[in-house]
Amino acid sequence: MKVGILVSGGDAPGMNYVVYEIHEKLKKLGVELLGIKYGYKGLMENDVIALDQALLEENKLFSGCILKSSRAPEFKTEKGVKKGLKTIEKNSLDALIILGGDGSLKGALELAEKGAKVVFIPATVDNDLKCSSYSLGYYTAVEACRKYIELVMRTMETLDRSCLFEVMGNESGEIAKGVFAASAADYVINEYNPLNLDKLVKDIKKNKKPCLKIVVQEKLVNLEELREMLTSKTKREFKACVVGYLQRGENPTKEEIKKAKAFSALAVECIRTHSYNKVIVFNEDSVEAKSMNEIL
Question: Could you read off the pLDDT of 272-289 as tens digits, one per residue?
Answer without folding.
Answer: 999 999 999 998 889 999
